[in-house]
Amino acid sequence: MVELHGKAPYKTVLIHGGPGAVGSLKTCSEELSRLTEKGIVEALQSQYSIAELIEELYLQIIEYCQEKPTLIGHSWGAWLAVLFAEKYPKLCKNIILVGCPPLADKYVKEISLRRLRNLSGEESKIFQRMIDNVATDEDIKKIPSILEKSDNYYLESSEKLIVDKADNEMYNSIWNEAAKLRTNGELLTAFKNIQSKLFLIQGVCDPHPIEGVIKPLEENGIPYKTYILEKCGHNPFMEKYAKEKFYDILQVII
């Protein structure tokens, strides 16, 4: 299942995060297609294991892409892009990691701390209760709007993270498996094995610390080029002060 934006040939594939945030890159796909006047494949995930997601992405790419595409992965989608490229190196030209989660466990605690620093008052208390696993049902209902504030620097009033189908079952299944790959080192092994050029785009205010990606890459001798966006959080395609530069960077790479 994909959404196609623009006309063939399709040389760029966008891979959403979550896991399970189906449709969250729709606006980004539309805008990138408009700016580049090129076809964009928005790959939608529907499987409940990493192996199945890799095979699903393989089928999407061989059906719609006539040549090796550039993969743009957001958040969890950044990991999926790399895991795919490790298995199918001949089907991937470049990989662009956007808002990539840390590649080593020692940086994970920093995510919650950075989110808390972006919150105040009752929202901070609610988020702390979630961290402590004592959140009430009312607290849980407020978490999406709290994360929108904690994870972004400044969203334009018209910008919302559109999700066609937030699949919690997919999130729990896939993220549990993905976290184990980070812990046991298989994720970094995948980064070492890829043959594609690697690009990293990260906001300074992203709760995912940039050093959690850069330092593991450097320590393992993995080449990459990085673009750091000021006044930007986890979703640069929605950020008022970073969106234009974000799309400029994408156009240069692809």
TrEMBL record:
- Keyword Hydrolase found: yes
| Residue span(s) of domain AB hydrolase-1 | 46-103
Q: Name one GO cellular component term.
A: membrane
Highest taxon of the source? Bacteria
Q: GO MF annotations for this entry?
A: hydrolase activity
- Taken from the record, one Pfam family name reads Abhydrolase_1
What SUPFAM superfamilies is this protein classified in? alpha/beta-Hydrolases
Q: Which UniProt keywords apply?
A: Hydrolase
InterPro entries cross-referenced by the UniProt entry: AB_hydrolase_1, AB_hydrolase_fold, AB_hydrolase_sf
Protein name as it appears in the record: Alpha/beta hydrolase family protein
What is the organism field in this record?
Answer: Anaerotignum neopropionicum
